[in-house]
Specification:
about 500 residues, alpha+beta, Immunoglobulin-like, Neutral Protease, domain 2, 5-stranded antiparallel beta sheet, globular, binds zinc ion
Length: about 500
């Protein structure tokens, strides 16, 4: 993600703006050292031998658990008792009324014996739930949809949940950033920007990057309206004056990266960029515009080839961006990054094109194991901006730019990138001092080892999740030296260190 305000060198949004949510994110940290508890999603419902009467649905007890998948910064997010393999989101959307009717089909495997299953979900109204085709009881409270299958689920076995729901999806508050995220309606454009914790405001999910899954989106809209999503457009079915746009994403994705983009758009293929990139490039552009109307965008394929050379093969089947109004930022939704239209017209467009593209490796293919390690996403994507500058203007100019920026952060009183405040996860230090951390590593181990570290890390954790210790372990194994002092100084200590002599 890049915030437009940040790019305009505005100070990060003030701490007072965030104070209202501070308590929410810090009061429930009693289990800071609690590892993932695979029993937490099993219910307090007694495993009664009498059970429900056949044909009746059994309402579960109210949610008694507050422990999620084990993220210190988001204690309620995610659920550890099962693993989702695939989401199918059947969405019937009325753009005029901004109203959604939906069925989410969730294919998962139980990791423990489960009397109940919890999904993260809020804001929209659930009308029915089925488990393996049988009606199931449910309660919705505290951002949890608690489902009681007619029969308990057995550890190691697969199951399928269908959730029918409807409502008007809306922007929602985040515990981690002081502006609304999730479903956005801006004029006649509708799109989703859900990082970090708003996926469950528009579909029921195991809403944490630790449980990645593949996706099918079937978006039913009136004829003339375009509906895009992550992945590849595999079908477009007409149905009584409406069109169902079917998108498939075959690579596992963290829930916060799931998106739809609905409205007056065009899907624009860029064959020249695809040839340079070696993968299909398709964009979702405001109707009537082409790649040529967004100067800088014509370099997207070249940028992809450049990063693939440095980071290893591009991890997904295709790429492109969607340009929308009113986002105030850019966000690296998997295979379909979102860009604010004003940002796409600004002098920063190329920097942010590289930034969001770099996230496809670092953040999307290699996901976070915990949100406090957000520098693994943003520091890496920000460093890619400097790599592009190095490519365009040479190493000396890049070094000068980094040195100047380092001095501007020295004494600025920011938290170190490895310990961001839970209520201001995307602060400038995470991006810029996070990127400097990688530069310090590069100066310490040399270019050859440095890029081998990045490639090995990207390859080792493809389609998985990683933590800061995972990255340090890769770096140390390739460099052959202990690096804990370096990472401690850059990621944890409050003072921004001096760069080592390269
Ligand atoms: Zn970013």
């Amino acid at each position: 993600m890049r915030r437009y305000a940040m790019l305009l060198a505005a100070l990060a949004l003030s701490a007072t703006a965030c104070s209202g949510v501070t308590g929410d994110t810090t009061t429930t940290s009693a289990s800071t050292t609690t590892p993932v508890d695979t029993t937490a999603s099993t219910s307090r419902v007694p495993s009664s031998t009498t059970g429900p009467s056949a044909g009746l649905t059994r309402p579960p007890d109210p949610p008694a658990r507050t422990v999620g998948i084990g993220d210190e910064y988001f204690p309620q997010l995610g659920n550890p008792g099962y693993d989702v393999e695939h989401y199918t989101l059947d969405l019937v959307f009325d753009p005029e009324a901004a109203r959604l009717g939906a069925v989410a089909t969730i294919e998962a495997t139980a990791l423990a014996d489960l009397d109940t299953v919890n999904l993260d979900f809020t804001d929209l109204t659930v009308s029915a739930v089925f488990v393996d085709g049988a009606a199931a009881g449910f309660t919705a409270a505290d951002e949890e949809l608690t489902i009681a299958p007619a029969a308990p689920l057995v550890a190691g076995e697969g199951f399928v949940i269908d959730v029918e729901y409807s409502g008007t999806p809306q922007s929602t508050e985040s515990a981690a950033i002081p502006f609304g995220i999730g479903w956005q309606t801006v004029g006649n454009q509708h799109y989703v920007a859900a990082e970090p914790d708003a996926a469950h405001s528009w579909f029921p999910a195991n809403d944490h990057p630790l449980d990645k899954a593949t996706y099918t989106f079937r978006i039913n809209v009136p004829e003339g309206v375009v509906a895009a999503a992550n992945g590849t457009l595999v079908d477009r079915l007409t149905d009584l004056g409406r069109v169902i746009w079917v998108w498939e994403l075959d690579s596992p994705m963290a829930s916060y990266l799931a998106t739809v983009v609905i409205g007056d758009f065009e899907i624009v293929e860029d064959p020249a960029a695809a040839e340079a990139a070696g993968v299909p490039i398709r964009h979702v552009l405001p109707v009537g515009t082409t790649v040529a109307d967004w100067p800088g965008l014509e370099r997207q394929g070249e940028m992809l080839a450049f990063l693939a050379e440095l980071f290893g093969p591009y991890p997904f089947d295709n790429y492109g961006i969607a340009i929308v109004d009113g986002l105030g930022a850019a966000l690296e939704n998997q295979t379909l990054s979102l860009f604010d239209s004003n940002l796409a017209r600004s002098a920063y467009f190329e920097d942010v094109l590289i930034h969001e593209l770099a996230h496809q490796w670092f953040g999307n293919s290699v996901s976070l194991g915990q949100w406090s390690d957000i520098w693994l996403n943003e520091g890496f994507a920000s460093y890619a901006e400097w790599l592009w500058i190095e490519n365009e203007r040479g190493r000396d100019q890049m070094e000068q730019l980094i040195a100047t920026e380092r001095d501007s952060y020295d004494g600025a009183g920011l938290t170190a990138p490895g310990v961001p405040p839970a209520f201001d996860l995307f602060n400038r230090s995470v991006y810029r001092v996070g990127a400097m951390t990688l530069h310090a590593l590069r100066l310490t181990v040399g270019d050859q080892a440095f890029f081998e570290i990045l490639r090995t890390y990207a390859m080792t954790f493809t389609d998985q999740s990683a933590t800061t210790p995972d990255f340090i372990a890769v770096a140390e194994s390739i460099a052959g030296v202990a690096l804990d002092d370096l990472f401690e100084a850059w990621l944890i200590e409050p003072k921004v260190p001096e760069f080592p002599n390269g």
